[in-house]
Amino acid sequence: MIPRTEADMRELPVAGRPPAERADAALNRRRILRAAAEVIAARGPAAVSMDEVARAAGVGVGTVYRRFGDRARLVYAVIDDRERDFQDAFIHGPPPLGPGAAPPERLRAFLHALADRTEAQAELLLMAEADPPGARFRDGSYALYHMHLAMLLARIRPGADTAYLADALLAPLAANLFLHQRRVRGMPLERVKAGLDALAGALIAAPEPS
């Protein structure tokens, strides 16, 4: 069920927050994430492999697989700190991104903030979203974004198909399309944000469904 109140959203946990761990498990996690970040910084996200990260971290490759499952989850863990900050901002932070602003303002603020967030780590997000195929939609962050947008859209357009519309607003922020627009078509970030504003504005101004 989609939350319909600010209180519902404020009670949502931040997706991806690691559970409490034993000291040795927490140490291994830090070693693995530090090693993965160093591989990415040195040679780019495409160079990340579970074997190489295990060697750099000084742990067995089985430990890496048990802790993270696959390469996509490892990459998501590397970007988790920024992701948790972003999620905290739209769930608990000040308006217009956080609670307190009118739904149309929050909708636009969220799309702009998500564009900034994608800009900051687009290559990592591209890798995480593509490996394995469809990983973007299985990640807890996407589900949380969708829930948040659906809640705002339900307030703006009661009775609309908010589940579909939330997916439609998130589609332009898939990392592959975002990077194509930014690097192949040469669109500045402000143009991307203006396009998101146009999409949001069309939804906000649309007549109520019969």
TrEMBL record:
Domain HTH tetR-type, first and last residues per copy: 26-86
Keyword annotations of the record: DNA-binding
Matches recorded under SUPFAM superfamilies: Homeodomain-like
DNA-binding region, residue range(s): 49-68
Record-linked Gene3D superfamilies: Tetracycline Repressor, domain 2
Identification of the protein by name: Helix-turn-helix domain-containing protein
Source organism of this protein record: Actinomadura monticuli
Upper classification of the organism: Bacteria, Bacillati, Actinomycetota, Actinomycetes, Streptosporangiales
